[in-house]
Predict the structure.
Amino acid sequence: MACFLVPAAEAVVTTIAAKAEEKKEHTADLGENKAQMEEVKIPLSRKLHWLTCLLFGGAVLLAFEHVWHGEVVPWFPFLTAAADPADAAVMLHEMSTVGVTMAILVTAVWAVMCLVADSFARKENMARRLQAGGAAR
């Protein structure tokens, strides 16, 4: 009924966090030296942007599915379950179980994705160091 609201709310929070982190990274980039800039590193703001995209994408698809089934309508109260108190209790239960589970699952997939991306970045850095060491000889 309204399970898509939980990932959407998390996406809003991660969007704000990504913007704040991006601003912090931009000020930190100004002070770094050239050697650190050559090292491959995926910034946290980019990783948070990935999470935001995953969450918003899932929320939009779920919202479309709920519109398709008539659970979300273009007039007040927008959620058909919100019109009746008994249905509202069911809706809140669905949000707290299904919605939270989906948000946690998407976040877990994102965490694994970040670990894999960091692993690739480490391998790239190691290859660059080996190349630089071989070129110096």
The first helix runs from residue 5 to 29. The mean pLDDT is 89. The chain has four helices and no strands. Helices lie at 5-29, 34-38, 44-68, 85-136.
